[in-house]
Specification:
Layout lengths: L3 H13 L6 H7 L6 H15 L3 H5 L4 H89 L6 H32 L9 H7 L2 H9 L6 H13 L4 E4 L4 E4 L10
Antiparallel strand pairs: 1-2
Helix pairs in contact: 1-3, 2-3, 5-8, 7-9
Amino acid sequence: MPTKDEVYDAADRMRANAERVSVRSVQKALLKGGSYRSIGEHLAAWKAERCYQHTLENAGLPEPLQRQLAVLGKVLWEQAMQEATRQFAADRARVEAIRAGEEQLRDEGLALADVAESRIAAAEKRAEQLACELAVAREQIKGLRRKRKVVDASGPGAAAIRRDERKSSGEIWDEVMVQTHAWMERMNNAGRGDGNFQPAELLAAIPKDLLEKATSRGEILDAATLSSRMATRAKHRKFFVREVATGSFALLPGYHHVGNR
């Protein structure tokens, strides 16, 4: 590995002989040679100290002028590097701005996609709900048509048919009241809510098979009808008490529905 003095001496000799001073030429001039890295570090310092410019020296210009031109070249180079650095920083800032804009657009796109997916899911859920409601409505229409035939029945036995229909209807609504009362008891025992329930909430708690049975028999089983039927029981102090201001229902204290509907 050549020393600094060895590199400097070789470079000075080559410069004095008007030879081009470079890493390769200095490497050949050294007795033991050396790597480009070890020579290059010392040669760069030599060129800076000696204001070496091979092109200017070969032009035959006076040495003072060469030194001035070398200094000027160094200043111009530094200015060019500063301008390049400034331009690089500006370009980098523009790239960052573009990247930030693209990320914002991507985030907005993802947000819109989330909204769209949420709306699609809600629409699909609503479509399923409407399909169920349509199926219930069709069954209810069948039940109403059957009930209409019973009501319009005439001739021998018509009165008995209508009496049986009223009995069947009453039994269905009795079962609805029993199931509703039992569900409210379970909710109270579990400590859910304040003991007051809205008709829509109670309607949703009625077993599916009972709903289907009532619908097939032509019974109108919606929140309004359920509220009316429960209000009638409450009026006769059965099953429930009704909060007039809110339209909600609670259990009638001490009431037991077994054998007493």
